Amino acid sequence: MSNNDETVQDVAEYNSMKMELVEHNDAEERGHSDENGEFVEIVEVNTMEVGGGEQVTKQDKMKKSFKTTTRPNYFLAAQITNTTILARLKEVQENICGKNEALRKAAIAIPTSHIKLNALHLDGESVKKVQTILQNSLEPIKEMLKTEALKITVDKIGNFGKEVVFAAITKDEEFENLKKIQRYFSGIMGDYEVDRKFKPNIPIMKFTKLRGKKRVKISPKEIYSEVENTHFGVENIQTIQLLSMMDKKDANGYYKSYQEIQLFDEKMTENCDAAATTSENPKVENKKEEVITKMRPNFFLASPITNPEILDKLKEVQDSMLAKNRNLERAAVRICTSHITLKVMHLDEEGVRRVQTILQDSREPLKELLKTDTLKITVDKIGHFGKEVVFADITKDEEFENLKKINKYFSEVVSAYDSEPTREFNPHITLMKLGNMRGKKRVKKIEREIYSELENTHFGVENVRTIQLLSMKDKKDENGYYKSYQEIQLFDTEKCGNSDENGEFVEIVEVNTMEVGGDEQ
Fold first, then answer.
1. Three-state SS annotation for 503-518
2. Segment 419-444, tens digit of pLDDT
3. pLDDT in tens, 2-26
4. 466 closest CA partner among 509, 425, 409
5. What is the reported pTM?
6. Phi and psi at residue 212, in whole multiples of 5°?
7. Which of 104, 314, 336, 412 could be a cystine partner for 480, CB 3.0 to 4.6 Å?
8. Contact 315/335 with Cβ under 8 angstroms?
9. Where are the strands (E) in 273-427, listed by range?
């Protein structure tokens, strides 16, 4: 064999080994255990001749490219417990898998969601040492951070090449505090740390989980472009845990924990939308998969749009848009359901009763808070959320500030059931919503051109009179409006009623009664 042939063979063997090692390091469960449960690292050494018969190992040839082949089997992490974040992670997964069902095997189990701080390789003795280190780290970390809470914002979607899609962590002051924690542990656990790169994220899809010849070829950004700007929420970091990659998951589907420390006072850091931890809702079990399902909004507080002038103009704008693109018909929101959302919630039967009582008792506190006899909201101009939703906007004036006060009031009194506690209050009246469209013929975006001519439409003034507890799931009533479980009238009708086109006072006071769990309302 010529020297040239030997070189080609060496390169081929090296590339083959490199690919094996990359796959090996990408595996979700890194390393394996022998029959006694001890970590086993395979370091098979093959020798070969290079040039004049010099003996070198394949590992020697790879040292320059790979600093270590030791695989992590434990890691330090902060668990994601905010149910809004968990629910949105699931929604993004479903959106991605809806485009290609073959990708479902790449989906990360939502109950395992965490932010990894340090990846470690530990044996039995070093596990005990790290447990002690972690246990003794609480005071040094608190002294270092000089804060009583650590709120990490999870916003937007990113990817690592074609291998991983993740929810990104906003790089703000709180992120810098997270970085300090990671560096602290790197400093005292350096002997056990496998990878010191700190790129905190919450994995959503991991395509290295797809194996075999039928591995799906994907362009990550294309499959998540529709949901790329998702705001997931804010995670109040409470604990840091030493977790095992090797052990069987616990009853909730989360990693087995060998040690954890609680950084801050639980009351200071509690995720306000985690119904599983509130005394208001003791029946909800703290199981991640159950919480995700239960926390999807199914009720909301809203004020109906009753001004005929506004309703007519909403219809005119919709008709104009549909005339330019008939494919948007299924995205059009029925005008008879028009409302301004104040708060979205997840309620079970008991929760419905409680919120009915809360709403019923809110009239006087709200009147005291607002210190006014009317609430006149101006509906003016057209806005949009990305290219997914088109809406009639609410003018940001003094009356808008009063609407904001109402939202804030309910954020406090129904916080146990709030499905979107971290979302900014942005009231509007929806005209088109691509989320209403299902199936293969779904329109990908609503182009501005189809409503640009009507963008400055003045819709009118809505005299807000009532606040209603409405169901998203129940059948609409005979007028096509949401089923109401409770409502309060904020002001006297003589002072706040809408006028029709002839200037006559119009009052709609249709009250529907219904039963909830056998109790007539």
1. CCEECCCCCCCCEECC
2. 776 678 899 999 999 887 765 566 78
3. 444 443 444 444 344 334 333 333 3
4. 509
5. 0.45
6. 90, 180
7. 336
8. yes
9. 299-304, 339-345, 376-385, 389-394
